[in-house]
Design brief:
mainly beta; Pnp Oxidase, Chain A; 2 helices; 8 strands; eight-stranded antiparallel β-sheet
Length: 152
Amino acid sequence: MNRKAENDVRNVVTGKDGEVFISTSKGNIFLSEADAFQVQLNFTNTDYQPIGSAWSYAVDTAQSATLTITESVIRDDVMLKPLYDDLAKGRVPQFSFQGKLSRRDGQVQRQVFRSCIPDGSVDLMNITPGEIIKRPWSFRLNATPELLEYFD
């Protein structure tokens, strides 16, 4: 194995190498208005200590994932309009996202996040003179994240 090639720092991935897409009825749309995107997997454990043991064990009891995105307000048809449309029908909208990272050597990593529902507060409008108007979103995933392609 060539360790030198394996740890080639020219393949380090930065934020400019990432893209975020949202799935719509029109297909996947590149979210150029997103300036920050993050998905975190959360594990919930319960402590279990059997009788006669000094050791306490962690027992996995739940997993969840949270997706956060910050969009600079450019257009409203991709996320805000579906939110309002579904609210008018008494429903909570679901979104699907895809994150893509591309290395300089051509390798790609893709992850898919389906059945994302809004979680917490959504800034419908937040205006500060002299500032770029941004809308932070937070979602909970109601489906397990999928790794479609990965770096090797």
